[in-house]
Amino acid sequence: MGVRLRLRSPCGVTVSELLWLSVLLSLTSCAGEASVGPTPDGQGPVTDLQLHPRQKMLTWKYRSPVSAGLCSMDAPLSPAVNTTPRVLDQDTYFCAFPSSVLHRGATFTVYSVVANVTVQQTLLFRNPGAVGAGATNLSCVVYAVSFMNCSWVPGRTAPADTRYQLFFWFHPNDAEAECAHYLRDSKGMHVGCHFNQLPGEPRTSDNYFFLVNGTSSQAAVPFLDAVPFVPFLNEKYSPPGNIMVRPAGPGFEVRWEEPPRRFPQSPSSLCYELDVQRKGGGRRTEPIFQRGQDQNRYELAEGEAGSFVRLRVRHMRGTIWSEWSAAVGFGPDRGHDVLALARVLSAVGLAALCTVVMMVVCKKYSLQQRLLPPIPRVKDELKAAVQLEQEVTMKEADLPEPHDVLVVQETQ
After folding, report:
1. Are 306 and 345 in contact (CB under 8 A)?
2. What CA–CA distances, in Å, run from 10 to 3, 14, 29, 89?
3. Degrees to nearest 5, angle at CA 380 with 376 and 382
4. Which among 47, 53, 38 is positioned nearest to 106, based on CA atoms?
5. How far apart are CA 258 and CA 346, in angstroms?
6. C-beta contacts of 292-298 below 8 A and 24+ residues apart
7. Which structural domain range is residue 34 located in?
8. Is the same domain home to 196 and 270?
9. Of 200, 216, 364, 372, which one has the greatest count of Cβ atoms within 10 A?
């Protein structure tokens, strides 16, 4: 944590404030010499000076006419902020500091030029509550297009019964609302908030505002505020999808698709990181960063053969990376192995198919022989019958002619 050195004038005004005052004084020095000091009557022109912490707005009224004015906010660990007053209504003026934080306390100063004299009125703001009891490290992340999670760390001296509450609003003029789905730690203390659905039509100009305060029966708990949350810079994308690696000339070409986003912008607003892992577990020395394109692609050298590649993505102006995608293998060595394996499997499959067909045919023929024995040929049977008949005829022709046979019957 650094220390900010500030140069102050003998009157207690910072150098930057003096520059602003010099501009104001130059506007009013035409009629005479200008100076810094009290008004002639000893009273400042500003009255009813008030701070509205939720709106981070300073309001007041003037008891006498002024020719120029300036507002300044000085907070620990933050640069000083200067702005010019504006009219709120008929007799009330205000200065707003929407991008500042108040939980560390702040000093507000209103400078006014009255009769060529610049006067100042100061308001000190301190965050009420026990030191160290308030929440710290508030952060929010948009994910899966329409969801958001916010988280914080309980104060190191927060009592055990501390109950933190998160309030939010999506426009400076909106009414605040409390979180509906708190996330709790193992002790049951609120440490986060889940948003099931973000409201409205998403725009890159959207700002979300958050405030975490707390209650306890043992001590007062300071609040925690934050600078406006810019959701399109704090969206965690899904990993790049549909990753393909194809041969391209002597090397390979990687192609992928950008992830879905809640806040659509041009493809060039995305930054991709490619992690190429060599075969055997090695990794490239330098990471590869690629800006988004209409057709996302990247060429890999031939030397990357037999490796794997994976990708992740973030917004060009953001810091939240997606998870890594699944690794995709590529390279001719891997391709040749796959091709050889495919050929072997094809040959084995063809041989197995032929074997099965032959077995089926043989089995079918054997069963047919058993159930349907061969039928004798009709032509051969007829030929054999004719030959037999001719032989019988010829034998009959050789027999002697029959003689008369006398049958003698014995008589008694």
Report:
1. no
2. 21, 10, 22, 36
3. 105
4. 53
5. 38
6. 292/258, 292/266, 292/267, 292/268, 293/267, 293/268, 294/267, 295/255, 296/240, 296/255, 296/256, 296/257, 296/258, 296/267, 296/272, 297/253, 297/254, 297/255, 298/253, 298/254, 298/274
7. 15-125
8. no
9. 216
Domain end call among 104, 125, 146: 125
Beta strand pairing call for 92-96 and 163-169: unpaired
Q: In this structure, are 145 and 175 located in the same domain? A: yes
Identify the pLDDT of residue 26: 46
Residue 385 within any structural domain of the chain: no
- C-alpha span between 248 and 221 (Å, rounded): 63
Q: How many Cβ atoms are within 10 Å of 291's Cβ, its own excluded? A: 12
Same domain, 27 and 118: yes
45 in the same domain as 141: no
pLDDT score of 342? 54
In the chain, which stretches have pLDDT less than 70? 1-43, 279-285, 302-306, 332-345, 360-412
Q: Structure pTM? A: 0.68
